[in-house]
Amino acid sequence: SLTLFGVVDLSAQHIRGDGHLTRLESGGLNGSRLGFKGQEDLGGGLAASFHLEAGLSADTGRGRPNSIGNVIETPGDFISFNRRSTVGLMGRFGEVRAGRDYTPVADNHTDFDVFGNSGVGDSSLLTQALAIGLVAGRGVRTDVRASNAVVYVLPADLGGFWGYGMVALSEKTRDDEPAGFLRGDGGHRGIRLGWEGAGLNMALAYGKSILSFQQDLSNIHFGGTYTWNDLQFFGQLSRERTTIAEVRHTNDAAALGVVWTLGVQAIKFQVVNSRIKRTGMESMRATMYSAGYDYNLSKRTALYGAVSYIRNNAAGTFDLGVPVMPGQNASGVQVGMRHAF
Amino acid sequence: SLTLFGVVDLSAQHIRGDGHLTRLESGGLNGSRLGFKGQEDLGGGLAASFHLEAGLSADTGRGRPNSIGNVIETPGDFISFNRRSTVGLMGRFGEVRAGRDYTPVADNHTDFDVFGNSGVGDSSLLTQALAIGLVAGRGVRTDVRASNAVVYVLPADLGGFWGYGMVALSEKTRDDEPAGFLRGDGGHRGIRLGWEGAGLNMALAYGKSILSFQQDLSNIHFGGTYTWNDLQFFGQLSRERTTIAEVRHTNDAAALGVVWTLGVQAIKFQVVNSRIKRTGMESMRATMYSAGYDYNLSKRTALYGAVSYIRNNAAGTFDLGVPVMPGQNASGVQVGMRHAF
Amino acid sequence: SLTLFGVVDLSAQHIRGDGHLTRLESGGLNGSRLGFKGQEDLGGGLAASFHLEAGLSADTGRGRPNSIGNVIETPGDFISFNRRSTVGLMGRFGEVRAGRDYTPVADNHTDFDVFGNSGVGDSSLLTQALAIGLVAGRGVRTDVRASNAVVYVLPADLGGFWGYGMVALSEKTRDDEPAGFLRGDGGHRGIRLGWEGAGLNMALAYGKSILSFQQDLSNIHFGGTYTWNDLQFFGQLSRERTTIAEVRHTNDAAALGVVWTLGVQAIKFQVVNSRIKRTGMESMRATMYSAGYDYNLSKRTALYGAVSYIRNNAAGTFDLGVPVMPGQNASGVQVGMRHAF
Hints:
- The structure is a homotrimer.
- By secondary structure, chain A is mostly beta strands.
- Chain A is 4% helix and 59% strand.
- Chain A has a single domain, classed as Porin, CATH 2.40.160.
- The first copy, chain A, has helices spanning 104-111, 124-127, and strands at 2-17, 19-26, 33-43, 46-57, 62-63, 67-68, 72-73, 84-91, 94-102, 145-153, 161-168, 188-197, 200-209, 217-228, 231-244, 247-262, 265-278, 281-296, 301-312, 330-340.
- Chain A has a 16-stranded antiparallel β-barrel.
- The radius of gyration of chain A is 20 Å and the shape is globular.
- Chain A binds chain B through residues 4, 6, 8-10, 12, 18-24, 34, 56, 58-63, 75-79, 297-298, 300-301, 303, 322-323, 337-339, 341, and chain B through 2, 4, 36, 38, 40, 42, 46, 48-50, 52, 54, 63, 66-69, 74-76, 78-87, 89, 98-100, 147-150, 169, 171-175.
């Protein structure tokens, strides 16, 4: 089987920070993408599979950032299979696959966010603030996905338990030292373990990005959803840790949300709180309030809207895409359309 | 429905200017491309659609230039959906779509050019001389397409009248000022209105590209075709206006052409005249004479040839891909094959 | 007909040189790729065809290097149809096609290498050492493929004889001189003639890459395979010639190998010897010993492993991906999976 699939999702957004910006933005509800995937039955319970999935900036037709060796972001945004590029073998032992893939801890952030880490309500702007470079000014390239990775997925029939782990190689030799890389730089280790049943789905995940040049970054995340009639409740607890310019930073975050499904409509609310403690400096704190509304014209096509507001404390600089001065608040609104194929 | 489509079109070209060049060139008859498009019937007269189309330089397998925010051309020519990247909703109200798309005025130039703005006979080398940077040395990025655009298309049943308009956002904030961008930079507004019937198709289009850093550029274009038996007549009138280095430039152009279809063969002629008036300087003038021949092996596959000659006045520097000295003439010849799929 | 096809091939490799490197690498058995191809029957024995094939670095989801005008390698590794981008017309006269394609001499290297020029056993690391830049530090861009090429392929029914030739254009004008290009730079001429029958397939190929800025490089290669029951024997003889910094370099190489097919398994051995003679300097010599094992889970999916060892003489610096000091030996091992679709 060979499947061609994709998403084109565009929204008009108005973002306020220190200045304001009206823009057409890709991926307000789901990340725009184009992919090719397939599976081959090998007999004896074995199957081979591949998955090539390219992120798109549908507002310009360009791709999305990728990374050379998990350290440097590729310049420009041309198309590559940055979302996923894997080949795998699955059987009764589970699945082993290799290539570029999502990190386990990033999946935990996405699955337990009411907005799926997309658009103006994306909770990872707070919960992954250190990974995306809010303080350091430079993001960690393994914050969402890692290249050069090997993933092992547990088999499906474990009484509701599920999980997977990833090791992503650094691929630096001693010879890269003059270029500023040290051994281990760009490596990533991650694991995610969950349980699903009785309307509940919950999981614990941990990831460590190795960054010899700048700082290692660890991230532990617990999240869950509980479905009760038309309501689905979301909860997250997470801690990021790293050292930037010899200052220890710890980002403790929590989020609560709910999705109310009414036939083809869905109403969403979420509150996220984040506090970045810094040795010898005032903490950066923020609370983010978000609400969303989806109208599904079909399973594949939806119209949607969302609003979000971030209240920063005096030292807080959390934003929604337009930088803010310390203590300034941020807001965003989006109206868009998503079509999947 | 999901459709995979494309064109691979290559020709051998010999171009003369100040020096000469023999090259294999992509897109002598139609631009080479690879695309994915689809439509979903949503019931009640509504339909959703997407369109992702990547330009190709088939001579090297690379893509075609795109633009970051309609101001800077992307370096290198890697593949992106630079030709079109849109999602849309259509119904009895017409169609609304968003993303990267052709500007209305560029469509007018293309539809009323005998050579469809492709290959050595492309009239836009004269009629869009200011937009493509003949004088300024740097082209306007919204000369053919615009990113971050919203397009509205009139419904189909208006007694032969048709039309559409585009607004493309600038997406610059105050914060981009240090990088040399001002608000509005890269924005585009355009409209096109036409009427078709009795063998006639004609349209008026206007576009304005906002360029705070360099110069705004406006373009008004009127064109038409008239079909009489095996003959199709083409006509164009256009005016481009901009200010470069505080000198006002006005490019007035006109073109006349004919296509004679004889079964699977087509014979084409076109004459284009252009005059760029410049405050306090001598005008740049040129006349371009072009002829072409197509032999259609099938609906999808054609062999073709074309020749073109540009006569410049003493100040004219219009060229066909190899720059000329002022007053020097230019010529080009191409023989190629186009295959569509 | 329109066919979507591809390969995702990933292996874990450990390479030793001056330092060592563990990496996930794309293309240990076959180069990872994604392609689109099709053919149209035009009647009268004529057919049109197109072929667009993009190389992938499946470990990161990125593409593979391409070249602008066969002289400069494109920066970054974004996706383009770098493997092949052609349109062609075939009939009783043979086939003419144009675009970016494999050079005839590179095909000879690949077809008569036990490892198909992929992974740690790739004999071209020795036999094409000058083309890939072992001495000059900069590879020749037409070592494997050429852009701006026209290819003519002999018809199929010539009593076992087969062959094709290529001319790739330089596309430099006098005007490129300030940029460091001279006329002819980047051009390539190549031819390949073979005979197949009685279990034997053998061919002679010649290619010349024109490099006015650096050095012209010529390559003559003779290779063959002979199939006897479950065994297939491989042989190669080649000579590369170029001048680097006014020193004449001649690389004489030879290789012998065998593939033993046992049902779904294949066992491979190859020995390659190379000697680069340099006017007034000690020759660089190396012998490469390689062994491989493939287990085919299906026609499309294989698990594989290979080892390789390079013994250098005192001046030799041949390596397997991690540079070595003169006289140092290199080794590599890989275990991987290839899935074709």
